[in-house]
Amino acid sequence: MRILSWFLVLLGVCGLMGVRILEDQIFYDPFLNYFHEGNKNIPFPEFEWGKLIISHIFRFALNLFFSCVIIHFLFKNKDWTAQGVILISIIFAITFPIYLYCIYDRFDIGYLFSFYMRRFVIQPLILLLIVPLFYYRKQMILRDSNY
Question: What is the value of pTM for the model shown?
Fold first, then answer.
């Protein structure tokens, strides 16, 4: 059973990598090239609000699904998986409106600020905090059960 769990964790990681690798093919995001250039003097891209919002929500859902696969099969705890969903969703609920405001403001709020808000919206960065947090929690539970 341990091999199956590690295989599913690896599958979750591959899923997240696939989302990243195929981002320009499966998501509508005219800001990919804008931020890829790293030049804030290039023209602000034309875009459609509805398509952009739906695309980001779809990307969030895919990232959330693969992140939950990773969390669940690393720790095998449904409550922790649910907590991971809540934490990731809270971060998205905070950063997504801020990023949309940055777009509305045409990144006048700050190019780097907008860039990093976008990172939190389109990439599962919070997973890099949740996994060590839950690992530490698991170690504390194991340590306390030995006393």
Answer: 0.92
